[in-house]
Write a structure and sequence with these properties.
The structure holds two protein chains of two kinds. By secondary structure, chain A is α/β, with parallel strands linked by helices. Chain A has a single domain, classed as Rossmann fold. Chain A has six helices and eight strands, in the order E-E-E-E-H-H-E-E-H-E-H-E-H-H. In chain A, strands 2-1-8-7-6-5-4-3 form an eight-stranded mixed β-sheet. Helix content of chain B is 36%, strand content 17%. In chain B, helix 1 packs antiparallel against helix 4, helix 14 crosses helix 16 and helix 16 crosses helix 17. The N and C termini of chain B lie far apart (47 Å). Classes of the chains: A alpha/beta, B alpha+beta. At the A-B interface, helix 3, helix 4 and helix 6 of A face helix 1, helix 2, helix 6, helix 8 and helix 9 of B.
């Protein structure tokens, strides 16, 4: 079963990710019963999915979070895909969802989600991190929780630190 | 200089701890080569031809004497007794073992040195004018702004995996000595009509294989909004920059393809939502940082020191050094000194452990314990009393740091090239040395006057060959090393890209070609006219004619251009 790191705890997770095969039609592809994360194209082409409550949209790097802006108040899960860990578009998508669009539900990073990026993920607003199934042993995943706290007091404002360091603390006069 | 508080120190210490664990997991097989790659790069570690190379950040070129001594210690203990100053305010060590890197970084952290974001697809070290704070033509001191940018860009969570590297430079003087229009973001400090400080912002400049001069994206951004505006530029780049082709991934490519107007529209549309947000700078924070960059405790001195004038009259070598290596200073009786790392026979920018110790001692003795590094790969002591210059010169000369050639042909910018760098197509250090030997006669060199010669071992252009008055680019032709020559490039306010004069040359021919170019200049120059001005006045044709004559390229031993 897939593992999910949420609120600094390791949980079992039952959501599945629907992939749209080449040639498949986003408007007609079947979304089976159960909890499904579906590509934005499917989410947009099948408006009825929003009413199910157990389907959530997935944003890829090239997707525009503005397309979900009107629905964000009612969504409880949005996923962002990292096709390769070195593809950093998802960090900006998360930042936009949290700050510009005010999304407050679960924001989940999926795909090539590795522990050495955990700290940056959470600071950009991801509160749920899902490494690839089988990537880490249970012991490694436990150890990986430490990466969430790599930096105690970072300089920047972010999802986890509303203010930058210079507004957070009275810094010593030089 | 900026002084760390506990928060700054904690972040650097935590970085060392993080990378120590990452290195441990790499050697334990828990991190793949591919996964470890960006982690080590963002800690300054390249795997080079011979050994890993460690690139350390010199934030906006400023160092304390004790930090320079630490470089000496690292060079002695972990390297082969020398290091190399790069063209972007970095120090590189070429022979450190990967296993020792965490230990080296931990030692460096004790004196506030680090290798954070000196490589990788992230925001790199910010660069600026080596004469910041002392230049006579300075409008606004760029250093506090560089420090604010350093803090904002260090471990910025959103911009650690950009499409490609990202470089920012700041200029606050009349003359741009930071090459700001060849940076991803170039910041020019300006005042508006109301006398308020702000930034004229250029975007999309860069050298490399597609050299482009940056374009103006904003004529005036008030200082409070510097960080949010830069964030919006970075965010648009991070989302829309090309990731399919490494050679088209720099911001300059998307700025060109969208056009600067459309790029600006996207940036400002994003900025509208973040402007005035928490990242807006405060007067209190600016004041706190700026307080680190107030003038040192200058003495009240006469404008000209009589002993200094006399010493120049008495010693021709001292006078020659003063002419080239000493600059004016905003305070009466003071001067700035450039210690040359361009002695013939030594790779440009290379410095030994004993020279590092000497530089630190000279800084402590004569310049308030501070040192700056220039992008031309020399060392600046910014605040020296005129009366101390003769003594300083004697000590620097004994240490091989007083070659009187600043701004002259032998003061060339040169990347490490094929001797060290795994990206290079051709060697650059032996070319530099061959040219230096050809022009070793000081009287001849001084007669030629100001001439900037820049050498890159490949089209990545670390040696800034595009903006050299003469540029030399190493190219690979069927496995052989050839050299393409450009003329007419320049840095500064009139930044201009040089033009290729014709087909490339074998290494052995390069000194002849440079000499022919110089002779052509000497034959055509007006009195007092610099090489670059002659090139722009008479055009490239007389130079091409002199080099290639009537021979067609096929008749010469050349590869196609």
């Amino acid at each position: 079963m897939a593992k999910l790191i949420k609120n600094q705890q390791i949980l079992d997770d039952t959501w599945q990710v629907l992939t749209l095969d080449d040639g498949a039609d986003a408007a007609t592809v079947a979304v089976p019963a159960g909890q499904w994360i579906v590509p934005l194209a499917v989410w947009q082409a099948q408006p009825a999915l929003a009413a199910r409550g157990d389907v959530a949209p997935l944003l890829d790097g090239a997707d525009d979070p503005a397309d979900l802006a009107d629905q964000l108040g009612t969504l409880s899960l949005v996923a962002v895909n990292f096709p390769r860990f070195a593809d950093g578009r998802g960090y900006s998508i998360a930042t936009l969802l949290r700050s510009r669009y005010g999304y407050t539900g679960e924001l989940r990073a999926i795909g090539d989600v590795l522990r050495d990026q955990f700290n940056y993920f959470t600071r950009c607003g991801f509160d749920a991190l899902q490494p690839p199934v089988g990537k880490y042993t249970d012991a490694q995943l436990d150890a990986a929780l430490a990466s969430l706290k790599d930096f105690t007091d970072p300089y920047q404002a972010s999802a986890t630190f509303r203010d930058p360091l210079f507004r957070r603390h009275a810094r010593r006069a030089a | 200089m900026y002084r760390y508080d506990d928060y700054d120190q904690q972040l650097v210490d935590e970085r060392v701890a993080q990378f120590t664990d990452q290195t441990r997991r790499y050697f334990a097989g828990e991190l793949t080569e591919e996964e470890f790659l960006p982690l080590r790069l963002q800690n300054g570690i390249y795997i080079q031809r011979h050994a890993p190379m460690l690139r350390l950040a010199i934030p906006y070129g400023n160092l304390r004497a004790d930090q320079v001594r630490m470089y000496g210690h690292i060079a002695r203990t972990y390297d082969r007794g020398y290091g190399h100053f790069t063209t972007r305010h970095n120090m590189q060590f070429n022979w450190c073992e990967l296993e020792k890197m965490p230990e080296i970084l931990a030692k460096l952290a004790t004196v506030q040195l680090h290798a954070i974001q000196t490589s990788g697809n992230c925001i790199r070290n910010t660069s600026t004018d080596p004469f910041a704070g002392v230049a006579e033509d300075e409008r606004i001191d760029p250093r506090p702004w560089c420090e604010l940018i350093r803090q904002w860009s260090t471990f910025h969570p959103e911009f650690a995996y950009l499409p490609r590297k990202f470089k920012i430079a700041v200029n606050g003087a009349e003359e741009d000595r930071a090459v700001i229009r060849c940076h991803d973001i170039g910041l020019e400090l300006v005042k508006n009509e109301a006398g308020e400080t702000g930034f004229r912002i250029f975007v999309g400049g860069g050298l490399g294989r597609t050299p482009i001069i940056g374009e103006e994206i904003a004529s005036f951004v008030p200082w409070q909004h510097l960080l949010t505006y830069c964030e919006s530029i970075l965010r648009v780049y991070n989302r829309f920059g090309r990731r399919d082709n490494k050679f088209k991934a720099r911001i300059k490519i998307i700025v060109k393809s969208l056009g600067v107007d459309e790029f600006r529209r996207r940036v400002e549309a994003d900025w509208a939502h973040f402007k005035d947000g928490p990242s807006t700078l405060t007067q209190q924070e600016l004041d706190r940082v700026a307080a680190c960059f107030v003038d040192p405790d200058y003495k009240m001195l006469p404008k000209t020191d009589a002993g200094y004038v006399q010493a120049q009259a008495d010693s021709k070598p001292f006078a020659a050094w003063v002419k080239r290596n000493v600059r004016g200073h905003k305070r009466p009786g003071y001067a700035s000194v450039v210690l040359s790392l361009k002695k013939t026979g030594v790779p440009p920018g290379d410095v030994t452990d004993t020279q590092l110790d000497l530089i630190a001692d000279l800084a402590d003795r004569y310049s308030f314990g501070e040192v700056r590094i220039t992008h031309e790969q020399n060392v600046v002591l910014a605040d020296v009393e005129q009366s101390a210059l003769f003594a300083l010169w004697e000590q620097a000369r004994a240490g091989g740091l007083a070659t009187p050639n600043i701004g002259l042909l032998t003061d060339m910018i040169c990347c490490p090239g094929g001797d060290f760098c795994s990206l290079a197509n051709a060697k650059s250090i032996p070319i530099a040395e061959a040219v230096q030997r050809r022009f070793d006669d000081l009287d001849y060199l001084h007669d030629i006057g100001e001439l900037e010669l820049n050498i890159s071992g490949c089209m990545n252009a670390c040696g800034h060959h595009h903006v050299g008055h003469i540029g030399i680019l190493g190219v690979d032709k069927n496995g052989e090393e050839w050299y393409q020559i450009t003329i007419g490039g320049r840095q500064g306010n009139l930044t201009h890209l040089g033009k290729v004069i014709g087909p490339s040359f074998a290494a052995a021919d390069v000194p002849d070609v440079i000499e022919t170019l110089v002779n052509t200049y000497v034959a055509h120059r007006h009195e007092g006219e610099r090489f670059i001005d002659t090139v722009h006045r008479i055009g490239a044709d007389p130079f091409k004619q002199a080099v290639y004559g009537d021979k067609t390229p096929a008749q010469r031993k050349v590869a196609n251009g």
